[in-house]
Amino acid sequence: MVKPSHSYDVVIVGGGPCGLATALRLVKNAFRVAVIEKGSYLQPRIGEHLPSSAMSVLQELGISDICNDATGHLRCSGVMSWWGNENTPHELNYFYHPFGHGLNLSRPHFDRQFADHVRQHDAVILEHAKVQQQRLTSAGWFIDISTEEGHHCVEAQFVLDASGKSASFSRMQASHIIALDAQIALIRHYQGCVGPSDDRTDHILIESCEIGWWYFAPLDDNQGICMLITDPDLIDLRKRSINDSWHAALDNTHAIAPMLRSFAAMTEPVVCSARSQRLDHFFGERWLAIGDAAMAFDPLSSQGIIKGLRQGWKAGQIVSKYLAGETAAIAHFSQDLEAIFSEYVTTRSGYYATEQRWADSLFWRRRHPSVCRC
Questions:
Q1: What 3 state SS string does 44-68 have?
Q2: Which residues pair with 189 in a beta bridge?
Q3: Is the C-alpha dihedral spanning 292, 340, 10, 124 positive or negative?
Q4: What is the Cα Rg of the chain in Å?
Q5: What's the pLDDT at 370?
Q6: Phi-psi region for residue 84, left (φ > 0), alpha (ψ -120 to 50) or beta?
Q7: pTM
Q8: How do beta strands 90-93 and 78-82 pair?
Q9: Which of 36, 98, 155, 248 could join 4 via S-S bond, C-beta 3.0 to 4.6 A?
Q10: Distance between alpha carbon 218 and the CA centroid of its chain, in Å?
Q11: How far apart are alpha carbons 47 and 303 in whole angstroms?
């Protein structure tokens, strides 16, 4: 550890939507905040859909202007899902919601816009930064950080872990990840190339299949993102075989494959974790985990970004109370997180149970209530 070069009230590990929402709430409450972001706001990021219910959250945070029609994000009319049958889709139409639409965000453009907004409110955001060491004393946290400029140490009264599924800071505090499944996502970006863009959907498309389910989201600039959710032991993920595995599974779809015929693949399939998980405990002395660091939901919930925004905004207020002397606020917030995760598990199990077409499929047997360990 070197001598602290800067002192803050709060350090936030992770500069995604959750960490940025937390920082914004704290700086609006007049706290000195630093955000430690391991990358920059240029690399690709996973997650794009905001349901109509998220529009009120954007307004509450004061960032709805960065998501208007001129900022590279696409309005979404709703969700079409072929789940439980292949003939008649279920439609969730956002037209009937108060805001009349959702959003399919262009990432990382949204994060970059959000980060610029937070900087304008005097939060410090350190990019290409990583926590190397940390130490808690009676005076507070001393955190050794590596950046492109070298190593330096910052001091803080409180640390929030918004580092995503890695939960990097929480695991340094002996908190452990509990995984409910081993689910993965194969993700591929597409560019529209055939036919007028007006003929393409502005809905999210979801279609279940024998080894999992498919997702497609149209994006701005005539692009789209497609994703296959499955388990890693149900598909050949070897480098030379993954493209064939993708197409073999895609050929068995009734809605996704026909829609993709007017698109060209821009990338090879990329594999990432899509499992449901949580920490065994969400907080400790002067630290708190939030967003995906605390709990990560199945992509089927479409709650990744909105959950992060809501939890971050709330956590900013909770930590403000803690620093003002209400020390019980963190424990009460942790109880709220426990309730949220419990409700999520029940809802997820019930939704998967509605698909009964592949009774012998290992993917679906693992998720039906009679055999699901969730």
A1: CCCCCEECHHHHHHHHHHCCHHHHC
A2: 225
A3: positive
A4: 21
A5: 63
A6: left
A7: 0.94
A8: antiparallel
A9: 155
A10: 18
A11: 10
Neighbours of 215 (CB within 10 A): 22
CA distance 205 to 215: 6
- Tokens standing for 118? 């937070």
Cβ atoms within 10 Å, residue 147: 13
Which one-letter amino acid corresponds to residue 176? H
pLDDT tens for each residue of 68-92: 756 789 999 999 999 998 888 999 9
129-181 pLDDT, tens digit per residue, is 999 999 999 999 999 999 988 888 999 999 999 999 999 999 999 999 999 99
Whether the upstream peptide bond of residue 258 has omega within 30° of 0, thus cis, is no
Alpha-carbon gap, residue 25 to 117, rounded angstroms: 12
3-state secondary structure at position 117? helix
Do 11 and 168 touch, CB atoms closer than 8 A?
no
Question: Which structural domains are found in the chain, ordered by start?
Answer: 4-47+107-180+276-346 (3.50.50.60), 184-273 (3.30.9.100)
Pairing type for strands 223-230 and 102-104 reads unpaired
Q: State which H helix or E strand residue 268 sits in.
A: none
Count Cβ neighbours within 10 Å for each residue of 150-176 and write b for 16 or more, e otherwise. Answer: eebbbbbbbbbbbbbbbbbbbbebebe
Of the candidates 149, 175, 129, the one whose C-alpha atom is nearest the C-alpha of residue 15 is: 129
Q: Within 10 A of 127 (CB to CB), how many other CB atoms are there?
A: 16
Cα–Cα dist 270/123, whole Å: 33
Element (H, E) at 242: helix 242-250
